[in-house]
Amino acid sequence: MTKKIEIADEVLEENVEESYPNQEKIDDDLLKLKESFKEKIEEAASYLDHLQRLKAEFENYKKRSFEEKTKLKESGKEEILKQLLPVIDNMEKAINHYNKSHDSKPVIKGIELVCKQIQDLLKKEGVSKIDSVGKEFNPLLHEAVMTELSDTYNPGIILEELESGYSFNGRLLRPTRVKVSTSEEH
């Protein structure tokens, strides 16, 4: 067995000497490989560091973005609330006037003015009322809460609006609750 190992070592040395005739060449190639390996490790470390910085920056961006969005929401709410304060003032004036005089006509007129003021404010902010009466029932805009037999109207026509529906900048806020006509066949 030892003889076989000695022969294998001799063959290996001959092959190494044929591939690398001198030790200097082997050492030189090994040195180049080590330097190249070291450069690749440094390059990989640089990429990892860059990636970690990008990740941290992105996390900070997400936090800032969330905080800015929250502040904008609060700011928007604050603006709407400021615009509602005069409406509340007018409602209180109408109530106080009724308590002093017990005359309901000015109170009703005051309530109508307050309602108009609220509607104008909502319209200014992009909220619009959905018109329904006399139109065909649309399940995307309406919620049928009652039906009524009708000889005058075709089935599926809205007879009465029980609760107004609203949209905000084209998106449904609340469907209109309606009474819809039906025929005897349904």
From TrEMBL:
Gene3D superfamilies according to UniProt: 3.90.20.20, Head domain of nucleotide exchange factor GrpE (2.30.22.10)
Cellular compartments annotated: Cytoplasm
GO biological process: protein folding
GO MF terms, alphabetically ordered: adenyl-nucleotide exchange factor activity; protein homodimerization activity; protein-folding chaperone binding; unfolded protein binding
InterPro entries in the cross-refs: GrpE (IPR000740), GrpE_CC (IPR013805), GrpE_head (IPR009012)
Domain of life: Bacteria
Keyword Coiled coil: yes
Coiled-coil parts of chain: 37-64
Keywords recorded for this protein, A-Z: Chaperone, Coiled coil, Cytoplasm, Stress response
GO cellular component: cytoplasm
Task of the protein: Participates actively in the response to hyperosmotic and heat shock by preventing the aggregation of stress-denatured proteins, in association with DnaK and GrpE. It is the nucleotide exchange factor for DnaK and may function as a thermosensor. Unfolded proteins bind initially to DnaJ; upon interaction with the DnaJ-bound protein, DnaK hydrolyzes its bound ATP, resulting in the formation of a stable complex. GrpE releases ADP from DnaK; ATP binding to DnaK triggers the release of the substrate protein, thus completing the reaction cycle.
Homology family: Belongs to the GrpE family.
Quaternary organization: Homodimer.
PANTHER family for this protein: GRPE PROTEIN (PTHR21237), GRPE PROTEIN HOMOLOG, MITOCHONDRIAL (PTHR21237:SF23)
Name this polypeptide is given: Protein GrpE
Organism lineage: Bacteria, Candidatus Schekmaniibacteriota
Gene coding for it: grpE
